[in-house]
Fold this protein.
Amino acid sequence: MEYLEISSFFTIFVTGALVILLGAAYVSVYSFVKIHYLPSWAMPAAYIFWILQTYSLYVLSVHLKINPFTQKVLLAAMVGYLIIPHIVYFLVKRTHEAVEH
C-alpha cells in the first residue's frame, strides 16, 4: 500500500469538497432550468459545473494514488452523473403528459 504525502492533504480536502459542491451546483442549475426558475441560457453553466466536478474528481484520484481501473470506474460514474438527470427529467415529463392528457 502506498502512503499519501502529507503535502497532498489540503489538495485532497479541497478537491473532495469541490466534487460534492460542484455536483450539487450541476444538479441544481439543471433542475432549475428544467422547471423554468432559471432561463434556458443558464444551462451551459450546469455543464460547466459538471466539467469542473469531473476534473476535481480526476485531481482527487491522482492525489489519492488510485489505480487506473478505479479511475475508469470513476469516469464511468461521472458519465452516469451527467446522463441520469436527463433520464429523470424525461421520465417525469412523460409521466406528467400521460396523467394530464
The radius of gyration is 17 Å. The chain has a mean pLDDT of 92. Residues 6-100 form one domain.
